[in-house]
Target: BTB domain-containing protein
Amino acid sequence: MQNNLIEQIASLQNNSKLSDIKFIVNEKAFYGHKVLFGLTSLVLLEKFEKEPNLKQIDIENINEIEFQEIMNYVYQRKVEINFRNIKSLLNFAKVYQIEDLLLSCLEFLEKNIANQNCFIIFDISIKFQLDDLKEKTSKVIHESKDCFKQEHVLDSFDDETLAQISLIRNDLTEIYFFRRIIEWGNYKIENENHENQENQPNIDLKNKIVPLLNSLNFSNLSESDLQEIWDSQVFSGEQLVQLIPDGVHEEFKNKIKQTNNLTGIWKGEMNTQNGKLGFIGVLFQKENQIDGVIQFNIGGHAGKITGTINNLDLDLIYKQEDPRIGYWAELKGTRSFNGKEIIGKGDHGENEKKRKKSVTWKITRDFLEDIISDEVNSISGIWNGTVQGKSKKNSFYIFLIQFVDKLRGIVVFEDFNSGIIEGTIEENKFVFVYKNHDKIKGYWAKIFAIIDEQNLILNGQGPHGNHNKTRKDFLTWEMKKEK
Model:
């Protein structure tokens, strides 16, 4: 008897002839019966009592397939709940106060709390204010890193969910949370590579990852943690400095600022149609302007490099000093987020002629620690000078970098010879050693110099020679720093 009654009620589902109420979902009509919907929903029962002549209700925030499940529930007490319809069914149950359907939705969610679903359910618990469910989901997130590896995990997050993320990390350190997000990013990249049949570039994940990482409490991170975050290149140096609160890790922030500035010693390699050319360079950056000098390992050719930097992008022009060769290169490059590497490509040639094939290049910092920036009390900078020998006077310029008590730079003479200069500082006294690029000739010079109080003028003298031989005469050196 009971089964027959259930079957008879089910036969009334969406029967337009016996219907007394019509529901419109995205312009599609569903035919129902007030008595059954009133017994199911307290909200609809109240509405039918207030408006006895009501014939039609427009239903929002649900599609036709999902509302079909509502019809199944009202007429058959059956409903198929899945992750495609859970939000709509849950919303309908709450809006229309259908307690049994709400309990069925909660039962489905609690049964399916697992690593692959934890963030979907966590997001639902916040949206629908389901505190008990939120607590259970948070526990799963606490106990497993795999929650962060699912490719859908960040897509549904909004500002409200992001704000809650920090609240579920009571027993997770900031760096642990960071690593989990990076793991998710790597997981996403691997899947994109696997699915991308045309080998097109990966999408930029930073736009999805960075908003979540902004919830990190940078005050609780150690310096080694900050170094790990910086090395990951998720944040640029400028972003990282802004995220670290004032008065916290000031030395580390200064290190970042120093690294973001390209001033320093660089080693690199150019790939041309004739092969690879190694070089060493000294660069100075002031605001967005770049000045420097490069010396190639083969031939010792040296020249100045100038250009600009805009955020991470560089435009540089290299011109060889020796006009008899007139080599030049126009280069466009990109600086890495951690400031340790620049890669790029461009045109090159001799004098007015441009070679057919472009040149690619890559440079990395030789070393960075303890650079003294180009301020009033620093030796770092561009110096012009002369060296007087027994019968000859030669002018030169030096791009010189100071590393606390050490100096390193590149010297280029007016006769186009060039080489590396290294030295030490003790108070106002300097000892330099110059070595010419030409190892066959092995020319060297040693300079003992004193600097004036304004750190603008260096005067000195010293021996010189070839290989292990020392010439009889001393050289006199005079240098003046460009302001």
Remarks:
- Confidence is low (pLDDT under 50) at residues 197-203.
